[in-house]
Design a protein that fits this description.
Two copies of one chain form a homodimer. Chain A has 16 helices and 17 strands. In chain A, the strands form three sheets. The first copy, chain A, has a nine-stranded mixed sheet with strand order 16-15-14-13-7-12-11-8-17, sandwiched between helices. In chain A, strands 3-2-1-4-5-6 form a six-stranded parallel sheet, sandwiched between helices. The longest helix of chain A is centred in the last third of the chain and has 20 residues. The first copy, chain A, is globular, with a radius of gyration of 24 Å. Chains A and B meet through helix 7, helix 8, strand 15 and strand 16 of A and helix 7, helix 8, strand 15 and strand 16 of B.
Chain lengths: 497, 497
Amino acid sequence: MSQTTVDIVIFGGGGDLSLRKLMPALYRAHVNQELDKSIRIIATLRSVSNSADNGRDEFVNRIKQALQKHLQAQEFNPGHWQAFSERLCVVGLDIVDTNKGWPELSALLSLSDNTPLFYFALPPSVYGTACENLAEHNLIHPDARVVLEKPIGYDRESAEQINNKVGEYFPEANIYRIDHYLGKETVQNLMVLRFSNYLFEQLWDSKSIDHVQITLSETVGLEGRAGFYDNAGAVRDMVQNHLLQLLCLVAMEPASKLCAKEIRAEKIKVLNALRPLTGDDIKQNTVRGQYGFGVVSGCEQRGYLDELGNPTSTTETFVAIRAHIDNWRWAGVPFYLRTGKCLQQRYSEIVIQYKPVSHRVFCEDAGELCSNRLVVRLQPDENIQLELMTKDLERTDVHLQKMSLNLNEGSKQPSNIRDAYKRILLDAVRGDSTLFTHRDEVDASWKWLDPMLDYWQKSKDSPVEYSAGTWGPTEADQLLKKDGAIWRNPKNGEQSQ
Amino acid sequence: MSQTTVDIVIFGGGGDLSLRKLMPALYRAHVNQELDKSIRIIATLRSVSNSADNGRDEFVNRIKQALQKHLQAQEFNPGHWQAFSERLCVVGLDIVDTNKGWPELSALLSLSDNTPLFYFALPPSVYGTACENLAEHNLIHPDARVVLEKPIGYDRESAEQINNKVGEYFPEANIYRIDHYLGKETVQNLMVLRFSNYLFEQLWDSKSIDHVQITLSETVGLEGRAGFYDNAGAVRDMVQNHLLQLLCLVAMEPASKLCAKEIRAEKIKVLNALRPLTGDDIKQNTVRGQYGFGVVSGCEQRGYLDELGNPTSTTETFVAIRAHIDNWRWAGVPFYLRTGKCLQQRYSEIVIQYKPVSHRVFCEDAGELCSNRLVVRLQPDENIQLELMTKDLERTDVHLQKMSLNLNEGSKQPSNIRDAYKRILLDAVRGDSTLFTHRDEVDASWKWLDPMLDYWQKSKDSPVEYSAGTWGPTEADQLLKKDGAIWRNPKNGEQSQ
């Protein structure tokens, strides 16, 4: 573990990510006494002048308002806020102008021996410039760390450029690429379940598992991110990072030790074992969709093209992929990946579908015999359900009954523990890179996805239209039906706890 | 399924078993509308005169009082009692005197076309005479059934005599040997769990299971059964029937269909595969004990010899056995069996102890890694717990935590459903013999136990004394320690739900 006495410098401190996610996470860590007393939180933003103090006060007040808005009601407390705000420093700084604010930042950092932890809450296009300016002002100590927000790049080539550029200034070991999905306690619990239970570790392969489903389903549409999103689409926005990272954690071989280096190595092996999808394979194994008009959660939703104001866009807002991992463990096991906007419910979930029992010993009257499933729910709540068959104890005869066991039961932790950003930030503070993404992972992900994106761009087909508020195009159901599988869609109003 | 319109004749209707178990079970079945309207309940007892009606009324009143005592408060209801009592017939009858009451019973049965179901709540020594008298009065229709209470016999030879005698009058298919342990819903749920869940059926053998424990622990001493018990001892009273039956259900191969005939065949195969214990093997693999003075549940308890009033008895009140099943599935897996009187807590439990995970991937700080266990609790409450490891979600770092999942959760059935006697009686009424014991099972059990009982009788060793209120002799702990195993003793005051 590296030094934990850091100063956290948030570039883009006034942006949405900073106010909605990072500040609440840091506030919670502060309240929970998880931040060393010496740690300062330095927010840089362009719009503040370093000479006049009123700009600073105004910004600190904005942070306060953001906390009051994004924390739960009982979490905000004037006393804690007072102590938290004493950690806050504000620097008016222009990322691309080496004179504007950089000297002030340098002076501020020199007041402490703390290692700087630079958080780039910035568009990747200015990562390079930011690094140059850090270097010019001698701010990159040998231990200095940098945290990068996804997505890294637009394709394999652009990702490589970004990683090369940042790599000129920071050694890979000090670069923390965030995927906040990996900060969810339940994702880590999935690893614990896999590797600490004989019942699971013994049955985690193609002999026992029929298929795996990973769904990241959103109900929102463009939400004002039209410019960014239309250039990206569902694959770049969700598959390249979150979906493939989750796939890696499900599929990876047990490392010798669960440490950063070994987990990364195992994840990269999974990505490299993904069966390449090229040419006709893409048509057979993927479905891309674009939402049309519909009703989501009782509200009318315009179609994507209408919302975008561009009737010719072929950007996918939905994608379903049947992937295969060509290695010994997973030969023949489909991994069904799915993500989309304007779907019926917001939820993220991993489903491990076990094979059926070898033989049915029960008479036909005894009812349906469902195969076991492990359902790892990441959003909107976090829990893990194990679906088993038991006897219906309310009947005298042997009658089968499906039951769901909650594996998170008994851990009624306060909601602030569930803050994935807090978890991830504290890991970066501690210098624990287990849950961050290595550049080789970024590269391997793009390497697998680039042909798909190319193929779509070159093809004359448009994405299939699906009505907003449904579960996406019916073609996505067909994709599984070929294998005899079916998507697990939560029922309307289903309450998982 | 056979005819379900039967008349239930309870020989020994005034005895403890009838009043404490059978009548409450029948009353519950009646209230639950599980008994056909035509079914009569005919209780025979010696002390009633068939000419005077007051003896009958007095006995019916005793049944009423017994129900009020042994049912739960809200279960007894005057309206239900009124209807239930209309099913009741009382016959003054002497089992061994062919003239006393037998003609009256015959006349009573001839009033209905119902098949008679004879329940022998009698000492096995008069089974033969009872059969003779039934035959003499032409009461054994081709479909007539007989229900026998355990224990059948004192050793292999005496059991064979009893079974032969009853077999002269009833075909084996119409003989229902009761083991009320098998009537527990949880025992049947164990079968459902094994055979309807991939996660269990795949890991139910020597590759996955380290060992199995079956404990039937009592807190009571002789309870006025001194004469019977000193002639029997723990092996005859508990091991020959209950313990070995439970062992069979855990160990049996999956039948092609879960029907009576196939289950019996599989159980017999298990009993025949028990590794014979003879000579020195008995010394190495068994521990027998006899309780001395101690404190049980806060009350002083006299030692067995003192309570019995015979200082020379070598009857065992505790026995622990390490058994092996010499077949493909269970090679090398010890089955530890244990039962005793005056132990610390009353409970019955089957523990399936899985092997440890192949390799620990967690750092040492991450806490203890316990192996998975399936704990099937039969008494005092019924439930099935699955012990898994999870991440302690209240901690940020990866810390392992043991959790118990209740597999009966969500089945909050009324307590009357849990009446094992009701279940078993209704099966006999329906002619479903799945949960009853075939004579070959009785024979195979004695065949395995006879050498042990002989050896003890001939040896000069006395049973080891243990203090009442403990978990039995320390030698029983040593028995497991040799294999690196340890008894699962519930903690004082442990609440399983």
